[in-house]
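To whoever picks this up:

The parser on our side crashed when reading a file containing two proteins. I've narrowed it down to the boundary between the first structure block and the second sequence. Both blocks are reproduced below exactly, byte for byte. First block:
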Amino acid sequence: MGQGAGQAMEDAIVLVNCFNAYDFEKALQRYDKIRVKHTAK
């Protein structure tokens, strides 16, 4: 699987987990915080 496809799958998993744990706005904020830290490496 290519790097872009792998990141898309990671994004989807993190986003689903955030939506399961938080309301809509907080979920998106949490998702952004998690993914930006991960992809900035």
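<<boundary where parser fails>>
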Amino acid sequence: MTDYSRPVRVPMPDWTDEELRTLVDFRRRKGRRWRSKLLDLYLFGKDDIEPNGASLRHIRNRQGPSRVAALSKATLDEAEKRLAPIAKRPSQGDVS
């Protein structure tokens, strides 16, 4: 028999490369106080007017503002280093 009186803990989803890339880009554009600026955008529903607004809204819906607030600087720094070579690769349509 299932005990419905106990809350079920659902594991939080891992950060995807695309989510981390979006947050790294936002941090690069907004500077040191990027996190509070993003949380303000979430609070007032203005995240969709930013570049990559759809991705920022997806992060809010999937991870939640509390996960963004808890994201460590080290995690984003590591993601920036790991994903930087990917961003610099020429796309398939580029002719060299």
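After patching the parser it read the second block fine. The CA atoms of residues 55 and 61 lie 10 Å apart. The radius of gyration is 17 Å.
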